[in-house]
Design brief:
24 helices, two-stranded antiparallel ribbon, 639 residues, 3% strand, globular, mainly alpha, ABC transporter involved in vitamin B12 uptake, BtuC, 72% helix
Length: 639
């Protein structure tokens, strides 16, 4: 895991002496991961969720999660993904927000009966395709005007924005004599299309007694697959074939994991859970070591423990941050819910300071770990051991300081799990040599395992969220309701990620966003590509308009106005550059989730909701600075 992993012809002395360009050396999985444009957004999603989970009640519950994913899905998430594609192509669409409301109003007006309600009387089977065609026509119009006039898309789409908001208000008053248009429930064909755009899943109506057992098994499988995948991507394969004895060790470890899962499922006692967790952790370690002995080259000289001055400074700072977190948490009253200073209660300030200091502490320790990797295997292992032991110690501290079951059970288990993963990785790094060159087969296998893990993660949490247990029903837990809008958001994101990352059109999008004239000179249809990107945004706005119309049944004339700025913020927070040519569709989805977390988390923490705009502004500024840094690093690594 060295930041500089030398090829056989490159020694450490060569690199340090400057005779070898460090940028030409092989980069490990972690270095490649941390220059991905969406990695900052992913860290932000996890960090914000953990923070609001700690300081609020709804986060972490099925009902809170349902509200979060629904808010993030539409219109914000779908539009953020579409706007991310357009921004990668180097353009903006300021009419995107107004378009969502316009499409909802249009389909309602087309489907309402002729007469007092002023509709066209069309069946929804006809009205919906007509509204889609109109949306695509608006996108085509925007794209063609931008290309033919050579005016900035900012100006063209700003004009379209005013046209749409004027048309929505004017036609609403002209036809139905009010600013609210509806009711779509009276349209012909409503029931079929309602199931497509507005069906819901009532969690409390679906019980499954084996839910937790299946969830636990999937989580263990996911962690094992991820560890094995990262090992494939990080360690060098051995030249000889697999050793039979090593495979036997792996099977023994797997059996240990199975016994641990059974123990966890069969008991609710602290002793039983501890034994089960130990069996799973030790079994996973034994299994991975067995697999590693059969697949990877053994580690060479490990060197001695010797931190550089930079590494030592960050190590001390990290440990100091963790110690300060423990002191603050121990000194403040965990049960005092009275107001202290706006916007904090005593409990809220305690949790905020604790999490902030923990975040600083481990950020510093990771910087120290990066410096330690440059020195020796032994130094790296020592720092990683400190991190693992500190995480385990914090887990027991949190358990001792908390009366809430979510800290004493969920938080404690997750922190111990993270500590166990660190220890397992320490052992693997101590035993096996890292790769110093590209291995296409290992990369392919690792990528497939990661993809499989991603699918299983989704399956595990979908099972946990969609089904309930009899004891939860008896406890009168607030019912959770999930909407088909979330499926539309997920499907749209998956398609956009595939198109941008795996198709020729995606390559053209990056090319025209980076340098349109250069792209045109090498045969890229720049004008057509940009027009199609505008049509994708308008098509997404149509989809959001349908989802809104069937969700609300009536649409206000001002629906969507001004929301385009939140779409742009989500795209930028997700790693898309304002200047174009760099970004991801997945980042737009993650940016939408961050905005949703802040929007729902701030009032859940009993803060003034107006502060979310301050959060969005600060987040945008930080995202722009972070994206610039990541882009610079990525470009330096490609040279």
């Amino acid at each position: 895991m060295n930041d500089v992993v030398n090829t056989p012809s490159q020694t450490a002395d060569d690199v340090s002496a400057g005779t070898i360009d460090e940028r030409l050396t092989y980069r490990g999985i972690f270095q490649r991961l941390f220059i991905r444009p969406e990695i900052g957004a992913l860290i932000g999603v996890v960090g914000l969720w953990v923070f609001f989970w700690a300081v609020t009640v709804p986060f972490g519950t099925a009902g809170g999660t349902a509200s979060l994913v629904d808010f993030a899905s539409t219109p914000l998430g779908i539009m953020a993904v579409a706007v991310s594609l357009l921004m990668v192509g180097g353009e903006f669409d300021l009419s995107a927000g107004a378009m969502t409301g316009a499409m909802g109003i249009l389909v309602i007006m087309l489907s309402l009966e002729v007469g007092e309600r002023g509709g066209a009387g069309l069946n929804l089977w006809i009205a919906i395709p007509i509204s889609l065609a109109f949306a695509l026509l608006v996108g085509f119009f925007n794209g063609q005007l931008v290309e033919r006039t050579k005016l900035p898309s900012f100006i063209i789409t700003l004009a379209t924005f005013f046209v749409l908001i004027g048309a929505k208000l004017g036609f609403s008053k002209l036809i139905v004599d009010q600013v609210q248009v509806g009711d779509i429930r009276k349209a012909s064909g409503y029931e079929f299309w309602r199931r497509i755009f507005a069906s819901e899943w009532q969690r409390n109506d679906h019980q499954w007694s084996q839910r937790d057992a299946v969830f636990l098994v999937l989580i263990v499988v996911i962690i094992s697959l991820v560890l094995f995948a990262v090992a494939e991507l990080q360690f060098a394969r051995r030249a000889a074939g697999p050793a039979t004895s090593a495979l036997v060790v792996a099977l023994v470890g797997l059996a240990d994991v199975i016994v641990g899962i059974i123990a966890l499922h069969k008991t609710d006692s602290v002793a039983g859970n501890t034994i089960g967790a130990l069996l799973i952790g030790s079994g996973a370690l034994v299994a991975l070591v067995g697999i590693g002995k059969s697949r990877f080259e053994p580690q060479g000289p490990r060197g001695s423990v010797s931190l550089t001055s930079k590494g030592l400074r960050w190590l001390v700072a990290g440990v100091a941050g963790l110690v300060a977190a423990v002191i603050v948490a121990a000194a403040m009253d965990a049960n005092d819910s009275s107001n202290l200073v706006f916007p904090f209660t005593h409990q809220g300030l305690r949790a905020t300071l604790f999490l902030a200091l923990i975040g600083f502490g481990y950020s510093a320790l990771f910087i120290s770990l990066a410096a330690a990797r440059r020195v020796s295997v032994a130094t790296r292992s020592a720092v990683l051991l400190i991190m693992a032991l500190s995480m385990a110690g914090l887990a027991f501290f949190v358990r001792s300081q908390s009366a809430s079951s979510k800290f004493r059970a969920d938080g404690f288990s997750v922190m111990l799990g993270v500590a166990a993963v660190m220890l397992i990785w320490l052992v693997l790094g101590w035993m096996f040599a890292e790769r110093s060159s590209v291995d296409a087969k290992a990369d392919r296998l690792g990528a497939r395992l990661i993809a499989t893990s991603g699918v299983l993660i989704i399956a595990a949490f979908v099972i946990r969220l969609l089904f309930t247990l009899p004891r939860e029903i008896e406890a009168d837990i607030i019912p959770a309701k999930f909407s088909v809008r979330t499926l539309w958001f997920a499907a749209f994101t998956v398609v956009a990620v595939f198109v941008l990352g795996k198709t020729r059109f995606g390559s053209w999008t990056f090319a025209v966003g980076g340098n349109k004239e250069a792209a045109r000179q090498v045969g890229v249809p720049a004008a057509r590509t940009k027009t199609q990107l505008f049509m994708i945004v308008s098509g997404a706005a149509w989809l959001v308009g349908m989802l809104l119309a069937f969700r609300l049944n009536t649409i206000q004339a001002n629906t969507g106005n001004g929301e385009e700025f939140e779409y742009i913020i989500a795209a930028v927070v997700g790693g898309t550059l304002l200047t174009g040519g760099y970004g991801t569709a997945l980042g737009g989805a993650l940016g939408a989730i961050i905005i949703a977390e802040a929007t729902l988390g701030i009032p859940s923490a009993r803060w003034n909701s107006d502060w979310r705009f301050l959060f969005l502004g600060v987040t945008l500024l930080l995202a722009v600075l972070a994206n610039r840094s990541i882009r610079t690093k990525a470009e330096s690594m490609r040279r």
